Amino acid sequence: MRVKITHYLPGQIEKSIAQTAALYKPLLAAHPRATAHTATIKDVRDQALAAEAHLAALGIPKKDRPGAARVFVSGQPVPNAYKYSRTASDVRLERGASDWFLVHVAAVTIYQSGGGARTVLTPKQRDLAVAHLCAGFGVASPLAILEARS
């Protein structure tokens, strides 16, 4: 499965409806009856936007973003008194040349802890992110710190 996630402008309602239907099919197939803690189309689109913002914050240029992934499990934490298991969605999004794609949806069981999200980088993207981070600070030698104190 590979479903494109696109954010359409308000005037493109026909395209938006067709794409919403395409996203809904794999979500429904993963868990046909459960609805309370499962991923929605809005969750999928929000995670795609969050992943794109995360890549931008890491300083990764757009031309180097293909291959990144966003993995998330739906559901919020519940109080410890809630002792029952819940059905949630395990979702994987992958970055293509210019858009994000929904590539995996599966039902998973979660308990008190809720879901979470993380961005997965390729080795090249990791190197670019580390270089961007290192460019933002310098490292002082221990002798320079001691001399500055005296």
Can you give a write-up of this model?
The chain is α+β, with helices and mostly antiparallel strands. The chain has four helices and five strands. The protein is flat, with a radius of gyration of 20 Å.
Helix and strand topology:
Elements: E1 3-5, H1 13-30, H2 41-57, E2 69-73, E3 86-95, E4 100-110, E5 117-120, H3 123-134, H4 142-149
Antiparallel strand pairs: 1-4, 2-3, 2-5, 3-4
Write the element-wise H/E pattern from the N-terminal end onward. EHHEEEEHH
Number of strands: 5
Percent of residues in beta strands: 15-25%
The number of helical runs is 4
**CA radius of gyration:** 20 Å
**Backbone structural class:** alpha+beta
Largest sheet: 5 strands, antiparallel
Give the proportion of residues in helices.
Answer: 25-40%
Report the principal-axis shape: flat
Placed side by side, the strands forming the largest sheet appear as 1-4-3-2-5
* The number of domains: 1
Give the CA-CA distance, first to last residue: 64 Å
Average residue pLDDT:
84
Give start-end ranges of low-pLDDT stretches.
Answer: none
Please summarize what this structure is.
The protein has helices at 13-30, 41-57, 123-134, 142-149, and strands at 3-5, 69-73, 86-95, 100-110, 117-120. The protein is an alpha+beta fold and 150 residues long.
List keywords for this structure.
150 residues; alpha+beta; 4 helices; 22% strand
